[in-house]
Amino acid sequence: MKITLDHVDVVEVGPRDGLQNEKVTIPTEAKIDYITALADAGLRTIEAGAFVSPKWVPQMADTAEVYRNIPKDPGVDYPVLVPNLKGLERASDAGVTSIAIFTAASETFNKRNINMSIDESFEKYAPVVQRARGEGMRVRGYVSTAFGCPYEGDVAPEKVLEVCARLLDLGCYEVSVGDTIGVGTPVQVQSVTGILLQVIPPSKLAMHFHDTRGTALANTLAALEMGIATFDASSGGLGGCPYAPGASGNMATEDLVYMLEKMGIDTAVDLKLLVAASQIIAPYLDHPLPGRYLQSCTKAGAPVAPASTTVH
Length: 312
Ligand code: HMG
Ligand code: MG
Fold this sequence. Notes:
The protein has a single domain (about 10-300), classed as TIM Barrel, CATH 3.20.20.
């Protein structure tokens, strides 16, 4: 194995990608405590929510209240998803300084997720990015279904490259390449990444692996070998997209951090405090968190925090 990196940036998406798919309503205070604990664990980028339509994703309806009440750590970036100008206005009102726009490499998924074709999404996002950047915001981009679509099946790597390049041209500082339904394999990851790297430098790419079929860590190793140094993950393995049938959680942040740190790759994340953050949100869910490292702690008798939250 040839990995030359000694540091990896972890983008924590649990409070957004994780919580957006939960059936039970999570109290706003619990989300605030969860995000605060994630920052205390050393995570430097924490996706705090989404200014999407509350009719489409009710779990993210309280993002403004969550965002306003997070005790902001000056060293932490708290991006939020924004699908249109209305979302940007809501983000701006809440004092957001960093947003993420999201489109896909397959038409049917994009239509189901944001009710737009890929081209329409770029038309909608152009003024969003222009205004956001004008207000001094950082803009990240997402490409969903980069390794397979729940409706169309295989996705051409050339299409993934085209959408990534368009997001960067629009002004995104980085594109997160999403395995939305967790179908990718290491060989496929290296083949798609190889095509992307012919045009895009690795510093502008992140990988966003859902762990639906248990391949996320293997895919991470494959991407690390290609020089990718930014990975999205959700604490405890929370997650899934409500508009991707069968999509389950993201790669668990604990599993990623454990593997990397043991390989001598620094993440600046404190694993013990990360487990504590997952244990803050776990009691509010109607199912156990799937992350393997977290489960090993719980099995070993580590205390599970009670479902108490502070009032903000
Ligand atoms: P639409 O129905 O076509 O939009 O939805 P519309 O413009 O016709 O508006 C419909 C209603 O929504 C109107 O309200 C608007 O005001 C309101 P009404 O008049 O009916 O009362 N509305 C909004 N309200 C609040 N905030 C807004 C907003 N926009 C419109 N921003 C839309 C289009 C894009 C809004 C909708 O499809 C949407 O919100 N989709 C988001 C879906 C989503 O959040 N999916 C999950 C995140 S993506 C993901 O998980 C993948 C990722 O993790 C990467 C990976 O894994 O691949 C990122
Ligand atoms: Mg996702």
